[in-house]
Design a protein that fits this description.
Mean pLDDT: 75
Radius of gyration: 22 Å
Helix content: 25-40%
Order of helices and strands: HEEEEEEEEEEEEHHHHHHHH
Largest sheet: 2 strands, parallel
Number of strands: 12
Strand order of the largest sheet: 1-7
Shape: elongated
Structural class: alpha/beta
Low-confidence stretches: 46-56
Number of helices: 9
Length: about 210
Amino acid sequence: MSDKLSSRPPGPPTVFADDTSVVTTRELKDVKGKGLLMKIEGVREPGTDSSGIVHGQFPQKDYIACGSSIICADKLSGVTVDGVIDLSVTMEPPKVRPETGTVDEARPSSKELAVKMITEHKVELIECLMVDHSFILQHVHARRIVTDREYQNMKHISQPEETVTKLIDHVIFKGQESSSLFLDILKEPDVVCTYPQLVKMTRKWC
């Protein structure tokens, strides 16, 4: 593969991926930021092969992905990141209902909906939590959703709205697990007592 790529004409690489596979050829140059998230997540479908490729015959491409496979051919150069770098690749099996043994293609779990929920209600959350931004920040730090360094940086922001906005952005950026933990915090009794508006807000989310 390396000999082929080194001898091909200039330009972006050619790729082929069937309906169950992924090929990424992203290129980042001279980028600076607080974090870098380039996660690839997929679900492996058993017995699925929609490539239409006859055994032993493949299209003339630089990268070929078939049968629920992932090829990550991304290029990073001159990238400087202060915080989290996530380049993970995961391919999970489909969820099976224990009582029937069938693949569950219905609705995603509450954990999988966490990022979507927070993103859609971001403005409401900011308006609610900025009333006492220090309180929610302490809870999030205690649950290790933010690091000590991130906590100190947000703690010293003078504007409550900016603090909460940055906090929520961090939670969303860190993915489903952190977002699910954050939603759990919003349901804790002392948090609800501090932000009574959460009762009405979270009731609408269910």
